């Protein structure tokens, strides 16, 4: 799918592998947990990204209204991908503590929305996100759980979408 030339009024979902995908719905462009560099680690010789994530490059991605990050593991928050997408991202939605990565990487802090579980985020007219618990953990090295891992329920003018990240089934469902 040529993402740069899809009619903005067309609703689509393109899965990039694992928990990474592009959604275009109700006139908004949404990117979730993008990993387009081919690796899911800080070292190129280490963990490779999930199969299929290399079909697109950052050049194939249009301007993004909402970037959702479920947690800060390398296979969800890819430094190389995020840096290349930086000029295309309008708003970043993430759990508490994850925004620190974006701040460190030089992102405008007014674009970063960090929330705890069970909070509501009014994004634009007709677009609301709800942070919901997930069953997972966070961390980008030897330390774990310094940032929140989360799932989202995205309410658009025409539907509700669950953005699960790596969440497993648990009592919160």
What does it look like?
The protein contains 2 helices and 10 strands, in the order ββββαβαβββββ. It has helices spanning 79-85, 99-104; strands at 12-17, 20-25, 28-32, 64-68, 89-95, 112-115, 120-124, 127-132, 151-155, 160-163. The strands form 2 sheets. The chain has a 6-stranded mixed beta sheet. The relative contact order is 0.17.
Major sheet details: 6 strands, mixed
Q: Runs with pLDDT <50, length 5+?
A: none
Instruction: Summarize the amount of helix as a percent range.
Output: under 10%
Instruction: Give the N-to-C terminal Cα separation.
Output: 33 Å
Alpha-beta content class: mainly beta
Q: Strands of the largest sheet, in order across it?
A: 1-2-3-4-5-6
Radius of gyration, Cα only, in angstroms?
Answer: 15 Å
Tell me what portion of residues adopts beta-strand conformation.
25-35%
Reading the helices and strands in chain order gives EEEEHEHEEEEE
Overall mean confidence score, pLDDT: 85
Strand tally, please?
10
Describe the protein's topology.
Layout: E1 12-17, E2 20-25, E3 28-32, E4 64-68, H1 79-85, E5 89-95, H2 99-104, E6 112-115, E7 120-124, E8 127-132, E9 151-155, E10 160-163
Parallel strand pairs: 3-4, 4-5, 5-6
Antiparallel strand pairs: 1-2, 2-3, 7-8, 8-9, 9-10
Brief summary:
The protein is mainly β. The protein has 2 helices and 10 strands; from the N terminus they run ββββαβαβββββ.
What key phrases describe this protein's structure?
173 residues, mainly beta, 6-stranded mixed beta sheet, 4-stranded antiparallel beta sheet, 10 strands
């Amino acid at each position: 799918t040529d993402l740069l030339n899809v009619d903005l009024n067309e609703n689509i979902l393109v899965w990039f592998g694992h928990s990474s995908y592009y959604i275009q719905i109700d006139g908004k462009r949404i990117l979730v947990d993008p990993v387009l560099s081919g690796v899911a680690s800080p070292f190129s010789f280490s963990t490779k990204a999930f199969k299929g994530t290399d079909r697109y490059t950052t050049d194939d991605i249009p301007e993004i209204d909402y970037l959702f990050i479920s947690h800060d593991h390398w296979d969800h928050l890819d430094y190389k991908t995020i840096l290349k997408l930086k000029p295309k991202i309008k708003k970043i939605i993430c759990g508490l503590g994850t925004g620190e990565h974006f701040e460190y990487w030089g992102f405008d802090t007014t674009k970063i929305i960090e929330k705890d579980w069970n909070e509501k985020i009014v994004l634009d007219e007709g677009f609301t996100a709800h942070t919901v618990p997930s069953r997972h953990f966070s961390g980008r090295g030897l330390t774990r759980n310094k940032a929140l891992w989360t799932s989202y329920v995205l309410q658009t003018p025409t539907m509700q979408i669950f953005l699960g990240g790596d969440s497993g089934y648990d009592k919160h469902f």
